[in-house]
Design brief:
The complex is a heterodimer. Chain A is α/β, with parallel strands linked by helices. Chain A is 42% helix and 14% strand. Chain A has 2 domains: 133 residues, Aspartate Aminotransferase, domain 1 (Alpha-Beta Complex); 238 residues, Type I PLP-dependent aspartate aminotransferase-like (Major domain) (Aspartate Aminotransferase, domain 2, 3-Layer(aba) Sandwich), CATH 3.40.640.10. In chain A, α2 runs parallel beside α8 and α8 crosses α12. In chain B, strands 1-2-3 form a 3-stranded antiparallel sheet. In chain B, strands 4-5 form a two-stranded antiparallel sheet. Classes of the chains: A alpha/beta, B alpha+beta.
Chain lengths: 386, 198
């Protein structure tokens, strides 16, 4: 019997697009070191530059801004590290402002820097997970070096007013970074339009390979490499080029750009179908995040009196793959900090499930989930304390 | 297919939990015990019937993760038929062993069935005006989220490793998750300080 697999965890990672696989298989022949001067090296470099252009087109980035990294975590760390270095060198702008719901690669970096004595302020978000602009304004000042705000949240899908934040921060003379990882391929992302100085992204969130991403850096803004040791990327990021992964990302970027409008509408339709179905078939549910500013494929729902890990594992036994904000699945005892920061009650955070759609999901799959999920919640609630 | 998250026994008890208390069933309980909280992410209730100083029957309810459900289910199978004394000292290690093991971090937070069972036995003895010879012999959990017991706190206060509540929090992590235990912990800390150092 064939095992049912309904993959609804596309915010965690996506499968490779078939065209990406084909291009990467071909690119495996490109074994030359792209930094070499000979024919094999030049051939590899040509493919890399083609990918660079595809990514640049995807995010409407300025010329010469694209630097390849191992992913968005490295890109985010690079940005925080370079401002830390400037603060160490005595810059009068010695404060960093970010938010309470960033990706762990920023949240953990913030905790680490704070332990070392750096001043970092976290701007609060409202109950939908949106940055409160009045609070952001209060945090501005001529001592702010960097403002970093993610474009779309990985857990609840909330889209931030990054353009407004960039205008505000620039007005106060600070530089601006956005982690656009979750937004790519789902909503239009233009570095020029957003007006940010730095932008991070990761290929595996839009049907490209894992372990490759980009930090886009506007010309003329501060920079210091995180990795030292080679002249690759104009000295901005050392390490031999991963030809295969870069080619894969380039193809994924081209497809993401071409299909954005259609894909975005399709993801929202699937998401709304599932949301309406859940609300119609399961009593007492809470949809987390923002209705007006939400990544199209993300649906985060809390089921009071049913615990997240148990829901996830009962769904897993039915072949449905999701994620949860429950503490039990995190390895720590703390439930999702994103939900808690948005003012979601701790009990609701324990019972939260994230469904995240991708290009391979279908309406039939939504129907299957709507058939399997209600009895699971009913069963867990019956077993739960009354 | 890759291995499942937990052992095959855990999976079986998670998929087919034994002795759960269904809404339709009228269960005349002689003792009821409840531990944990929704805020912690694990809460359970155990109901027992007692005959001839034995756990004659047992029902339970659990809000919690897969290992909380499976370990409470396993506890129920082990406890039914035990004398009250045996049941009182049924250890989380024994439950975990019967389940074929649990990941370390799960053992501490989700195996609460034994504590709920103990609370049910306490309740039964109290209701029936019987003496409780075992209560003082077992550590009482004060912080359920971080599983901090009164004996543990007593040792830290006695040895002066924890001279303030802040130090106690740093050492044990008590009160850092749901925070429900804070008043009780403060009271215990004051009593112990008074006992050993004033």
């Amino acid at each position: 019997m064939e095992q049912t697999i309904i993959y609804l965890d596309n915010n965690a990672t996506t499968p490779l697009h078939e065209d990406v696989i084909a291009a990467m298989n071909r690119a495996n022949e490109l074994y030359g070191n792209a930094s070499s001067m000979h024919a094999m090296g030049r051939e590899a470099m040509e493919a890399i530059e083609e990918s660079r252009q595809a990514v640049r087109d995807l995010i409407d980035a300025p010329e010469g801004s694209i630097v390849f990294t191992s992913g968005a975590s490295e890109a985010n760390n690079t940005v925080f590290n370079l401002f830390r270095e400037r603060i160490d060198l005595g810059s009068k702008r010695n404060r960093i402002v970010t938010t309470t719901i960033e990706h762990p690669s920023i949240i953990e970096m913030v905790a680490h820097l704070r332990e070392l004595g750096y001043t970092i302020d976290l701007c609060p978000v409202d109950h939908t997970g949106r940055v409160v602009m009045e609070e952001m304004e209060k945090l501005m000042g001529d001592d702010v070096a960097l403002v970093s705000v993610m474009l779309g949240n990985n857990e609840i899908g909330t889209i931030q007013p990054v353009k407004e934040i960039a205008l505000l921060a620039h007005h106060h003379g600070a530089y601006v970074h956005t982690d656009a990882t979750q937004a790519i391929g789902k909503i239009p992302v233009s570095m020029e339009e957003l007006g940010v100085d730095y932008l991070s992204l990761s290929a595996h969130k839009f049907y490209g390979p894992k372990g490759i991403g980009v930090l886009a850096i506007r010309k003329g803004v501060p920079f210091a490499p995180f990795f030292h040791g080679g002249h690759q990327e104009g000295g901005k990021r050392a390490g031999t080029y991963n030809n295969t992964a870069i080619v894969g990302m380039g193809v994924a970027a081209r497809i993401a750009r071409e299909e954005l409008e259609e894909e975005s509408a399709r993801l929202w339709k699937l998401r709304e179908m599932l949301r309406e179905g859940i609300e119609a078939s399961i009593p007492n549910v809470v949809v987390n995040g923002s209705r007006d500013y939400c990544l199209p494929g993300t649906l985060d729902v809390s089921f009071p009196r049913a615990e997240g890990e148990s829901i996830l594992l009962y769904l897993d036994l039915e072949g449905i793959m999701v994620s949860t904000g429950s503490a039990c699945a995190s390895g720590s005892l703390e439930p999702s900090y994103v939900l808690l920061a948005s003012g979601v009650d701790i009990e609701l955070a324990h019972g939260s499930i994230r469904f995240s759609f991708g290009r391979y999901n279908t309406e039939d799959e939504v129907h299957y989930v709507l058939e399997k999920l209600p009895p699971i919640i009913k069963r867990l609630r019956e077993m739960s304390i009354r | 297919m890759a291995q499942w998250v937990y052992s095959p026994v855990v999976k079986d008890h998670f998929m087919n939990p034994r002795n759960t208390w269904s809404e339709e069933e009228h269960f005349e309980a002689d003792g009821v015990g409840e531990v944990g909280s929704l805020a912690c992410g694990d809460q359970m209730q155990v109901l027992i019937k007692v005959e001839n100083d034995r756990v004659a029957d047992l029902r339970w309810l659990t809000y919690g993760c897969a290992s909380a459900i499976a370990s409470t289910s396993m506890m129920s199978e082990l406890a039914i038929g035990m004398t009250l004394e045996e049941a009182y000292f049924l250890s989380p290690e024994r439950i975990t062993e019967a389940l074929g093991g649990l990941p370390e971090h799960k053992f501490h937070c989700s195996v609460l069935g034994d504590k709920a069972l103990r609370a049910a036995i306490d309740d039964y003895l109290k209701k029936n005006g019987k003496p409780n010879p075992w209560q003082s012999q077992v550590a009482k959990v004060i912080c359920e989220c971080k599983q901090v017991t009164d004996i543990q706190v007593e040792e830290l206060v006695k040895s002066k490793e924890a001279t303030t509540l802040e130090e106690l929090e740093k050492l044990t992590g008590y009160g850092t998750v749901c925070g429900k235990c804070k008043p009780q912990m403060a009271l215990l800390f004051d009593q112990l300080q008074h006992l050993y150092h004033v």
